[in-house]
Amino acid sequence: MTNTVRELRLVLTVDDFEEALAFWRDSMGLKEQISVGDDDGHVAILGAGIATLEISDRKHAEFIDKIEVGRVVGGQFRVALRFDDVPAATDRLEAAGAKVLGTPRPTPFRSTNSRLEAPDGVQLTLFDAE
């Protein structure tokens, strides 16, 4: 197929560029691929490994909220990131300013998940996979 999607890019618009860059690049560990800044503003593109698009109906999203947090807290989107060590990543991101909404816990999907809110307000699911 000649019209195949080649990349999924999630774009976050933030009020504090430097704070967001420090969180996502330095604390989260995403690799900076491109960074440009001038009088028209700033942008950084950070590599996050493999990108997938997960589509969920509201009922399933609320089910996941209850597993990860114990109550419904999600909005229309959240960013799910795979780590080898979810408890360590949760601690590192909390120290970098993220709010822990749900501590690391086992899920029915044989993964350990936690839920955080980044300083820019984006909800994060940290997960591992067998």
From TrEMBL:
InterPro entries: Glyas_Bleomycin-R_OHBP_Dase (IPR029068), Glyas_Fos-R_dOase_dom (IPR004360), VOC_core (IPR037523). It comes from the Bacteria. It holds the Pfam family Glyoxalase. Residues 6-129 form the VOC domain. SUPFAM superfamilies: Glyoxalase/Bleomycin resistance protein/Dihydroxybiphenyl dioxygenase (SSF54593). This is Glyoxalase.
